[in-house]
Design brief:
single chain; about 475 residues; alpha/beta; seven-stranded mixed sheet; 22 strands; globular
Length: about 475
């Protein structure tokens, strides 16, 4: 029997079936998670729907509940972080900080205002525009940051007055189950429900007749299926999908200055970040120095079990992703790319792969054109800046990008030409709860975070009072 239970209507809920949760550092079963039935999903949706009228009524009570939830995240960060490391693989310090980050997001939204806008106030009428909650939100989250990305949805949805049913990835369900358990003490029954299962459960959720909003983070392919499932019922959707983020170095960039930042932004969470740097475009005159600086960094880091002291990077989270990264790297090497560092899986148990820097390859290679989502970074040479920008934009993706150079104004001008939701200058992955996050093209629909993310969980209503 699993030690983790779902949360339905504020109570612990077991399931008739379970599924294995693999520890990616060992490749072995770490725990079992409940496999929700369709009937249990119906129960969770019904509980959320029943809780909605009362929950939407008292904004101050919602604020207090979110603040209490944030305090629980801070107080229990290491406990929940250990669960997260066990199932996700990231180092314990990083996992603990993810839980802390979840608390930061909850606290930010607890203090955010929902504006009422007066658009007419005269002898004829008093007209104001207000934002109303939608109802039940179905939240579906990925395996790379299961807790942080859950609170990106949970915090604004709850503040707006909605109730939530959360489904985490089947690769990382345990930390979300724990989140549901912990928050039972501060959220009224039915306000936040957590159910776990595989792809069938996600399909049931998106087609279910109760939710009025689906907030999904994951792959482009699955995001398209979510949008198609939501369309017949005209459910509102926010889709945060994949990215193939380019970094462009200008000819005045100093490799010694930027290499560590580039590496950190490419390999954070072992490269398993939708908005991490996925490809680097370098002018011909700097190419050798940049490749070697990044390769030296890759050779210096410690990879291992996230529960071990001093580990900087853990395993790839799951076998399908491990096999995909292995395939993309092997294919690039077979077609003439050079591994300046790494280039192959690490012998032993678990899904470990050497931090890899690939040189002497170009657009047209799958690892350049596609999202690798792992610890392998291609470095691409360019001779003409306009061509580099065109190549950076020449993809269906449009999540994020960055430009690096000594002249910040020039770098900002180039960054403004990138077709993406966030364009950084001399940094990357600088995210904050008050900063909107979303993508162009196939990288998403709508945004998360900041007041803009909050508005995505509301409908506009006009209150028009005649004075005639």
């Amino acid at each position: 029997m699993t030690g983790f239970t779902m949360t339905i209507d504020g109570r612990s809920a077991e399931a008739l079936g379970t599924f294995d949760v693999i520890n990616p550092a060992t490749g072995e079963v770490a725990e079992q998670a409940p496999d929700a039935s369709r009937e249990q999903l119906d129960q969770a949706m019904a509980a959320a729907q029943a809780a909605f009228p009362e929950w939407r009524r008292d904004k101050e009570a919602r604020r207090k509940a979110l603040l209490a939830a944030a305090d629980l995240m801070f107080a229990r960060s290491e406990e929940i972080g250990r669960i997260l490391t066990l199932e996700q693989g990231k180092p314990l310090h990083d996992a603990t900080m993810e839980v802390v980050g979840a608390g930061v997001w909850l606290k930010y939204y607890a203090r955010l205002e929902l504006p009422r806008e007066i658009i007419q106030d005269d002898g004829a009428a008093f007209v104001e525009v207000v934002r109303r909650p939608m109802g039940v939100v179905a939240a579906i989250t990925p395996w790379n940051y299961p807790l942080l990305l859950a609170t990106w949805k949970l915090a604004p949805a709850l503040l707006a007055g909605n109730t939530v049913v959360l489904k985490p990835s089947p690769y990382t369900p345990l930390s979300s189950l724990k989140l549901g358990e912990v928050l039972r003490d501060v959220l009224p029954p039915g306000v936040f429900n957590v159910v776990t299962g595989g792809n069938d459960l996600g399909a049931w959720m998106t087609a279910h007749d109760v939710p009025r909003k689906i907030s999904f983070t994951g792959s482009v392919a699955t995001g398209k299926r979510v949008a198609a499932a939501a369309a017949p019922d005209l459910k509102r959707v926010t889709l945060e999908l994949g990215g193939n983020d380019p970094a462009i170095l200008l000819d005045d960039a100093d490799p010694a200055v930027v290499a560590d930042k580039l590496f950190g932004a490419a390999f954070q969470n072992n490269g398993q970040v939708c908005s991490a740097i996925k490809r680097v475009y370098v002018p011909e005159g700097l190419y050798g120095d940049v490749v070697e600086a990044l390769a030296a960094k890759a050779r210096s880091v410690k990879v291992g079990n996230g529960l071990e002291e001093g580990v900087q990077y853990g395993p790839i989270n799951n076998r399908p992703q491990y096999e995909r990264v292995s395939e993309l790297v092997a294919e690039a090497l077979a077609k003439g790319a050079r591994a300046a560092a790494g280039g192959k899986p690490i012998d032993g148990p678990g899904y470990f792969f050497e931090p890899t820097i690939l040189a002497d390859l170009a657009d047209g290679s799958r690892i350049v054109d596609e999202e690798q989502f792992g610890p392998a970074l291609p470095i691409v040479k360019y001779t003409d800046l306009d061509e580099a920008v065109a190549r950076a934009n020449g993809t269906h993706f449009g999540l994020s990008g960055s430009v690096w150079g000594a002249d910040a104004e020039r770098a900002a001008e180039v960054a403004g030409r990138l077709e993406c939701g966030t364009a950084w200058v001399n940094t990357h992955l600088a995210l904050a709860p008050n900063q909107p996050f979303g993508g162009f093209k196939w990288s998403g629909v709508g945004v998360e975070n900041g007041p803009w993310g909050l508005y995505g969980f509301t409908e506009l209503q006009v209150i028009h009072r005649s004075r005639l």
